Amino acid sequence: MDLTLKIWRQKDKNSAGQLVTYPLNGISPDMSFLEMLDVLNEELLVKGEEPVAFDHDCREGICGMCSLFINGRAHGPERGTTTCQLHMRHFKHGDTITIEPWRAAAFPVHKDLIVDRSAFDRIQQAGGYVSVNTGGVPDANEIPIPKTIADKAFDAATCIGCGACVAACKNASAMLFVSAKVSQLAMLPQGKVEAKTRVENMVAQMDVEGFGACSNTGACAAECPVGISLDNIAMMNREYLGAKASSENV
Amino acid sequence: MILDSKIPEGALAEKWDKHKFNVKLVNPANKRKYDIIVVGTGLAGASAAATLGELGYNVKAFCFQDSPRRAHSIAAQGGINAAKNYQNDGDSIFRLFYDTIKGGDYRAREANVYRLAQVSVNIIDQCVAQGVPFAREYGGLLANRSFGGAQVSRTFYARGQTGQQLLLGAYSALNRQIAYGKVKMYPRTEMLDLVMVDGKARGIVVRNLITGKIESHSAHAVVLATGGYGNVFFLSTNAMGSNATAAWRAHKKGALFANPCFTQIHPTCIPVSGDYQSKLTLMSESLRNDGRVWVPKTVELAQRLRKGEIKINDIKEEDRDYYLERKYPAFGNLVPRDVASRNAKLVCDEGRGVGASGLAVFLDFADAIKREGQPAIAAKYGNLFEMYAKITDENPYESPMRIYPAVHYTMGGLWVDYNLMTNIPGLYATGECNFSDHGANRLGASALMQGLADGYFVIPYTIGDYLAQTPYAKVSTEHPAFKEAEQNVKAITDRLLSIKGNRTVDDFHKALGQIMWDYCGMARNAEGLQFAKQEIRKLRDEFWQNVKVTGVNEELNQTLEKAHRVADFLELGELMVDDALNRNESCGGHFREEYQTPENEALRDDENYAYVAAWEYTGPGNQAILHKEDLKFENVKLTQRSYK
Amino acid sequence: MNWFTKTFSSTIGRKIIMSVTGLFLCSFLVVHLVGNLTLFYRDGGEAFNIYSHFMANNPVIRTMEIVLVLGFLFHIYDAIVLTRRNKAARPVGYAENHPQENSTWSSRNMGLLGTIILVFLLVHLWNFFVPARFGELEGVPNAEYTNLYAEVVKAFKNPIYVGLYVISMIALAYHLIHGFQSAFQSLGLTHKKYTPFIKTFGVAFSVLISLGFALIPLYFFFFVNL
């Protein structure tokens, strides 16, 4: 099929960018979206033009490196799908496809479609862990965890950190991302020990990074490629209020 | 060069404990005087960086991805082995050791593998303490499943995303050390050279992938945890960015590269759909617990199916050949990966393959769904089925999956001794980056185990032994050795940018991959390998004359990044071929067509080839020199592997 | 900043204030509507005037009035602070965006709906509260109270006012449809068992309250003659 692509091109962080139009022909419906961009880049290279820079790595939907705001949707039109798992069969011959980077003050553009998501790492560094050193831990089966709790914690733990929640949210809020880790660890006995400090610190860092607040629109969960639930945000709010009311940190 | 594996004396089961007692220790107050560089933040790298930071060393960690959490360990699906024997089904440390040695077709070191089995139990404890949500039973205790190459259930798992959960656990430990200031993290930074001072590894040269700036980092020791080199084949289950550059540049500085031809071809991947294909997607081996592998019994039926004259359901039960169950009744569909892959190739070579290309076999869940019901199967494999449906647009609950083998893991890697140190003092290699534990074939759910064993429980001990004997004095990055390495990197970069040829980097990479797959893939022979060697040399020459790299160094330049990596693959590919050519036997993932049993099984030659082939770099275009480390087997009897 | 101000100046803290004040304002709506139902009494406004007299003079109500004003002020102030923060969180927007695929219109436009309600509120206060409290309403013969009812009748004969009131109540309905359940989410009061009920109740509440208020001007415009 033949397509028209409108792609955000931007030289670097400090330059202004713009949408540039590229025609692209002979695309197979079985291609993945990123393979389609590979084809475009090979064409651009052959013409001696600079290929489009975009983040990607595992191409199997798990590493969270790929991003892209495609036709007004984070990771494109298919629900529960990362861009690398989006296939061209979901587009039609003659379509115009607009491709933009994630937009958020906390995610500045490095180049073209590549953004800086290190804010996410800094939030995790603020408390997204259980403080245990290697060694000296109890036997794994000494901490029985009800299956229902383990499953719920797992659901939260599947977050791939891609940033689609921020990209889709009208406020560029990172609440879904932060809450996934907060609630995963708050549910598990291992994480409960330092749950209060964790939620306080992670939320504080989230605010420092300049993400917006949560308006409970649900856009984040709707666009999340791995289906992280809004329940996590509620749980984080609960944890936060409880922690603020009762923690030792004044 | 004499390769000293430094395996401790004594009984197998006591070696590691004795060794831990005998190694020199660095006093806690002195640890902060030592700097350690860790390259790569997958399971092996993140766990090492975190643990070394906890111990008090100053760690600098590097990854080329935008965050340490993206390392390709994240994509491991099936699980992680540990000899916990929670299932009371006869597992033990010795059994895990034995299965791993046997699964590796007796080409791994006994002592290393035994240690791996020993620390496997600690890994599970550690991960659970970190909050890794492993699968659990209703009673709240951990669940296990069985995996290829084993007859016990010892695999711990987190749905089909075990690697992700383990990596996020290690990432969280790493984050904690970053927050404490014990680890300094450098994401989007790629190592492009190793720096040696007085014969010891003392630092690295890196390229900042955002600004293009070439920078030096000095340390007392360097740990490479940079993963495998499966992307030599272009199409593999590796991530697009997975590369051998750090390991290869260390090799060019003198580190020996061991068993490069030992490549694992994973039997259950989604088949290639077109020449635009950029990577292959693995479907977890755990699917073979419930899926049955088959092809039509006759070539004629297969042909009619491929042409669409008949449908899958038109093939009667008696016309289906469940060839793994037929040939290996004891293990059935759960034979090791190399055996499953080779048999898939065999039936497809016979013309009985399915799918448009004929390069696929069926993995059928109809019986399992009938037996356990769709919800039970969905609970076990739901995310894998979904992934399959997304990629192929077919519903695996209704029609069987089509699968074909694909390059997945490389058992070979930098040669290391028992301490995981390469032959360069102060340079360590952990995880898939080294060669040490899997012999000629890795068992399922063992890669995660090895990565974490190396990082959490081995290197923290062994690196102390080396550092305790190293003076505190730091080497300045102004040292001529650093400047020379920086110049070297700049020279390669300048050369790549100045060629301005006509052929793209990907084009070269694909051509190399095709040569490797055709001649150094699932089956190899001397003639083909010799041909491949010439072809690779030709391709490499053309690369350096005709490659097209746009842009400049001082920017985010993904084409330049790839060019560096492919330049190294073009050299590594030849070494793989050399190694395959040298090893006149078949073992594990290395199948030389000349050496097979009448039943088409791999025929080892223990008399002449029970050694580790460690190759020394001798300059551009020169023939590498082979060094042998003989493998001694004192605790297992070498037998023809049988899974019948 | 001490822990208290830190807590309530965080994004979550501000959302908690939005939720608590929002739910409090919902309770006010209930009381206000119940009181206003006296307008439907066909007694020439006697019940309503007694009721409004009570509201204007009872010390408890007068105290609550201050709380109510504070509730509004906090709700509005935090809404402004959060909106500004949210705008700043995305300085460059998308060239193409289809948020309707992932969220409801009302959830994305709470600020707009709130502003409409605020404008309404000011007009409403000007219409009734100011004259009742500070103005010179005509008295009711033989009674201690003034005739606010007459003001109501007068105002709702004006089609512009009626239109404004009805439109504002539609805005209120949408504001509440999102806001009611959203408040529980922000406070972390969610549970598999109760959340579906809260959501259904929230919609019913929003529609009934807004409908109740909207009926008043319509009733006077169409059915009450001076």
UniProtKB/TrEMBL annotation, chain A:
Belongs to the succinate dehydrogenase/fumarate reductase iron-sulfur protein family. GO terms for molecular function: 2 iron, 2 sulfur cluster binding; electron transfer activity. Its cofactor is [2Fe-2S] cluster; [3Fe-4S] cluster. InterPro entries: 2Fe-2S_ferredoxin-like_sf, 2Fe2S_fd_BS, 4Fe4S_Fe-S-bd, Beta-grasp_dom_sf, Helical_ferredxn, SDH/FRD_Iron-Sulfur, Succ_DH/fum_Rdtase_N. This is Succinate dehydrogenase / fumarate reductase iron-sulfur subunit. Residues 150-180 form the 4Fe-4S ferredoxin-type domain. It comes from the Bacteria. PANTHER family: SUCCINATE DEHYDROGENASE (PTHR11921:SF41), SUCCINATE DEHYDROGENASE IRON-SULFUR PROTEIN (PTHR11921). NCBIfam families: PRK07570.1. It holds the Pfam family Fer2_3. It comes from Pontibacter ramchanderi. One of its GO terms (biological process) is aerobic respiration.
UniProtKB/TrEMBL annotation, chain B:
It is found in: Cell membrane. GO terms for cellular component: plasma membrane. InterPro entries: FAD-dep_OxRdtase_2_FAD-bd, FAD/NAD-bd_sf, Fum_R/Succ_DH_flav-like_C_sf, Fum_Rdtase/Succ_DH_flav-like_C, SdhA/FrdA/AprA, Succ_DH/Fum_Rdt_flav_su, Succ_DH/fumarate_Rdtase_cat_sf. The active site is at R337 (proton acceptor). It is a peripheral membrane protein. Gene3D superfamilies: FAD/NAD(P)-binding domain (3.50.50.60), Fumarate reductase/succinate dehydrogenase flavoprotein-like, C-terminal domain (1.20.58.100), Succinate dehydrogenase/fumarate reductase flavoprotein, catalytic domain (3.90.700.10). It catalyses: a quinone + succinate = fumarate + a quinol. It comes from the Bacteria. One of its GO terms (biological process) is anaerobic respiration. Residues 509-643 form the Fumarate reductase/succinate dehydrogenase flavoprotein-like C-terminal domain. Residues 35-448 form the FAD-dependent oxidoreductase 2 FAD-binding domain. It holds the Pfam family FAD_binding_2. It is an enzyme of class 1 (oxidoreductase). Its EC number is 1.3.5.1. GO terms for molecular function: electron transfer activity; flavin adenine dinucleotide binding; succinate dehydrogenase (quinone) activity. Its cofactor is FAD. Keywords: Cell membrane, Electron transport, FAD, Flavoprotein, Membrane, Oxidoreductase, Transport. Belongs to the FAD-dependent oxidoreductase 2 family. FRD/SDH subfamily. This is succinate dehydrogenase. It comes from Pontibacter ramchanderi.
UniProtKB/TrEMBL annotation, chain C:
One of its GO terms (cellular component) is membrane. Keywords: Membrane, Transmembrane, Transmembrane helix. The keyword Ubl conjugation does not apply. It comes from the Bacteria. The chain crosses the membrane at residues 20-41, 61-80, 110-129, 160-180, 201-224. The keyword Membrane applies. This is Succinate dehydrogenase / fumarate reductase cytochrome b subunit. It comes from Pontibacter ramchanderi.
